[in-house]
User: Fold this.
Amino acid sequence: MGTRKASRVIGKALRKVDAVAKVTGATRFADDLAFPRMLYCKLLRSTEPHARIISIDTTAAQRLDGVQAVLTGRDLPIPFGILPVSQDEHALCPDKVRFIGDPVAAVAATSEETATAALDLIKVVYEPLKSFDSAEAAIAHPEPRIHDYGDSGNLHKLINLEFGDVEAGIGEADLVREDLFFFEGSTHLPMEQHAAVAMWSPPPDGKLTLWTSTQTPHYVHRALAKVLELPAARIRVIATPNGGAFGGKSDPFSHEIAVARLAMITGRPVKITLTREEVFYCHRGRHPTLMWVRTGVKRDGAITGMHFRSLLDGGAYGSYGVASTYYTGALQTVTYNVPRYHFQGARAFTNKAPCGPKRGHGTPQPRFALEVHLDKIAEQLGIDPAELRLKTLVPPNSLTANYLRVGSMGLGTCIAKVVEGSEWKKKFRKLPEGRGVGLACSSYISGAGLPIYWNNMPHSGVQLKCDRGGGVTVFCGSTEIGQGSDSILAYIVAEVLGIDPFDIAVVTADTDLTPVDLGSYSSRVTLMSGNAALQAAERAR
Amino acid sequence: MPVSNESKVTIALSVNGEPAEVAFMPHKTLLEVLREDLGLTGTKHGCELGECGTCTVLLDGTPVLSCLVLGLACAGHAVRTVEGMAQGGKLHPLQETFADLGAAQCGYCTPAFLLAAEALLEANPQPTRHQIKDALAGNLCRCTGYIKIYEAVELAAARMRGEIAEPTRESLYGHT
Assistant:
């Protein structure tokens, strides 16, 4: 290996490759697309939180002038879901609704107004069931079950992981503290509402194209193939640039499947754009979480053992919930040294919009609990909370109790700089009534080591086309959601090839044109697609 | 049975400095007329309830929420959208600084911020940070945290006053 040359591109503050398109309004988001003879889709959503569907009468809607097709659950009977272990969603509910907003019918009409008017003509008869609006209520009532699967009653998932003898560890402590915390939950609110357009090229082509505002075109591709019973090779998913996502566009959604089927039935392009209200039904936001933590510490603040329990309000479907539940327990050990650790997690189904991943998937809730808990311990021990954290840091190049490998460890330097820069020692507990300073730390994993469906294939791929005229095009399945994933491809390739990043064209997120990338989630894109770009450029050089 | 007995109306207005005639159903908002009938999709929608500012355009130079303005009310008036900002193949100074400072991330709220900022600088070429915040208070952005947007407006304002201004090291690289 030669010595590393000073970088020309990486580390420089450059304009993003899509910046000009974004400041001129030229970027084409999903709802900016329009095609001749395009139809507009609207979804009829449940008005009941939990009910059996007795009947759906669509006759009047189908007779309305301009209505081209109406779908109900029986037209799309195959279930789907982002995780292989929770294939519990239907594009349109076949027999039961599980939250207010659950889609029950879809209409395609020549105008959005006509499609909306048609929804009012659909008659749904519901038989209401007892509904549950919190995780505690769902635990208290195992019947009626919201789903006919899960670890017990209305509990979707139960986790119990113990690393070392935690009770013995807590027994060695000078102080044992127990606290209970509740995190209310929150939603992503990307400025762009979800939107999708489907187009069907009839047999002998038999090909479907879907443009959609998604973070995960590859997973949408798989879900469409399953539900529509089409070969994956006959489906092309193009993720349009996302107008913000934050985790809220990483599941395959009912509206994407509905427009695809409607395009196949009508032979015309079909578009759907959710209203802001409907975005809240899609949700998949951060789980409301009840957390109990019990920690033993020595007089100097050293932790001897920790027992952490989390109860997640999952809402009506699985979504990423199993992963979210593990995440609420995984990372407590990576900042402060916890030699023995016991985690118990539970996720309940409730009759609310389903929860999922949102920015730091499953970790902001327990982190809030842990940091406040540590502050209370510092208070009881009479130790400065910044000092307490510095004393208990995980050492570099170590393995945590739950087998996570920590490489470098910059948190101590970070805390020291914050303490200095904020004049912590002058301010902590010394500011006037009603004012104060506090300190909290957090950590997250970059890279998502496992694909959603476990396999040994690459998590990302990059192809390069080198033109006779000196131009280079980068092809990658990664999805631009505003985080700069298109730009890093150009920067990395430019760095290696010694060319100007603005001489590089970038083609991304198109399942026909680009190699698979698993999606823009878990802070994985620069690590995965960046390394693919690096490897491709080094081979091309 | 048709849903509505309405028929289209035609109005004349100025769009980005050019005379335009457009026919549309009379219940449509300016937002819908721009996007659906004039093909100007640079104007975005975030809530269509007047909450988020994403659909901001300039009506006779004043920022308005195009989701709350009826298209019909714009007859004889001048509308300016993001598509009208770059002139003669050259970006507007605000577009330059938004691009260079990373003030546009996902880009969805960007057209609205640019127009609101342009109206501010037209009225007040040397705004304080507080006045910039005030002028942009009706626009939501979920990506940037706003700081880059304020810095981009300040840099563009300086350049539009004829000053030779470059981004500060801190605004490009943070505290180092």
About this structure: The interface with chain B takes residues 13, 15-16, 18-29, 31-32, 34, 64-66, 111, 113-114, 117, 188-193, 241-246, 275-276, 481-484 of chain A (CB under 8 Å). The domain at 160-187+285-427 of chain A is CATH 3.30.365.10 (Aldehyde Oxidoreductase; domain 4). The mean pLDDT of chain A is 96.
